[in-house]
Amino acid sequence: MRPGDALSYDYTVAKYFMYTTLVFGIIGMLIGVVLAFQLAYPDLNYLAGEYSTFSRLRPLHTNGVVYGFMLSGIFSTWYYLGQRVLKVSMSESKFLMFIGKLHFWLYVVVILLAVVSLFAGVTTSKEYAELEWPIDILVVVVWVLWGVSIFGLIGIRREKTIYISLWYYMATFLGIAMLYLFNNMEIPTRLLTGMGSWLHSVSMYAGTNDALVQWWWGHNAVAFVFTVGILAQVYYFLPKESGQAVYSYKLSLFSFWSLMFVYLWAGGHHLIYSTVPDWVQTMGSVFSVVLILPSWGSGINMLLTMKGEWNQLRDNPLIKFMVLATTFYMFSTLEGPILSIKSVNALAHFTDWIPGHVHDGTLGWVGFMTIAAMYHMVPRMFKREIYSKSLMEAQFWIQTTGIVLFFASMWIAGITQGMMWRATDEYGNLAYSFIDTVTVLVPYYWIRAIGGLLYLIGFFMFTYNMVKSFSSSKVVEKEPQNASPMAA
């Protein structure tokens, strides 16, 4: 590029990952809705034999949403905003463009292998780490390729200041890289015994140590995918869409560094009342409560960014999505620490309140923020208006209703479970059998399923709006500066 030339960004790889965000979002959420209806109506488990059971489909749902939908969204936004905040185009480096495309295609191969293996029941049975060792190796290669893309683009940047969002992308890369490697150290069973499948493996850790390492990873998969990778987006897209500068640079510094330090040690709260040392459990609880500070620091920073501009909530659906996403983030990061307090955990652990907590963060925070980011990027990447503002509004309210039904029903179900499990009669015997607790929860499972269905319907509306925007919406002559242009 010659001095004085206008900089033209290359969004090829960003578009690829945007497409997979839509596809994997539909697949992962559709399976989730099927699972929700299976809980309400168990006969649905046997429609296709073992392959339609809850236990066979659940890993497909969690991996499809976390590593398909969420990661695709993170990768897409990186390849979009990374160029813009660094003032350099991917097309200026043939090597980085090759790395970006290789990153995408190998990622798709890994996701397909994950779907096939998990559907076949080939799994390590470790939460958020269910893929067997050959696929784990490919995951590492995919992750290294993304790291090369991040630091390669930073290395050729024109803008010397590293914007806040890039701190979070780098932290996502480094955090997951370290944690994934340690937790997924495993040995193929055939090497140990000379028998069995080459695909099967056993963990290098045993018993309590395995649980400790697993939840050091498991909770930080939530930290560095559900949280840090999405914070990277809100710190860019909310100020950009609203036309407002980030409220406080000092608060962003405090929130980032304290989040990095505190989050890593909170995983022990998954093992309260287990065989791990009591001090580890206590440390997990304490660090979880302290985690409120950096989490709310970022949330407050984003909400105060809108100071004096709240009228945009009325006119711009994207602002609605992002503000509510930030609100759900603050809500979820208060709820999590409360659940980690030992006395509360004694009631809530193993109940539906726990997946309720995960889903209000995933659907409200991650889902809404990813949707808003995609909507913001379309006019700038495809040079076309968003197809329908009214469809965006309808989607927002349908999905919001779905989230409220979902988490409210699971709160009530979880607290009901916990209270019934603890209830005793005058002789000290348990007052209820396990099946009593299952039966009483059925109405709440129906509400949960309906809430999930509403969210899925909203996601189909989002996908339709996006596809129409790609293909047949009005061409944008000039890139929008603040709010995305809307067709009638």
UniProtKB/TrEMBL annotation:
Compartments (UniProt record): Cell membrane
Protein residues bound to Cu cation: H219, H269, H270
Topology with respect to the bilayer: Multi-pass membrane protein
Gene Ontology MF terms in the entry: cytochrome-c oxidase activity; heme binding; metal ion binding; oxidoreductase activity
EC assignment: 7.1.1.9
Binding positions (heme b 2; high-spin): H357
Highest taxon of source: Bacteria
Amino-acid positions noted as binding heme b 1; low-spin in the UniProt annotation, renumbered to this chain: H61, H359
Chief place of localization: membrane
Name the UniProt record assigns to this protein: cytochrome-c oxidase
Organism: Campylobacter geochelonis
Organismal lineage: Bacteria, Pseudomonadati, Campylobacterota, Epsilonproteobacteria, Campylobacterales
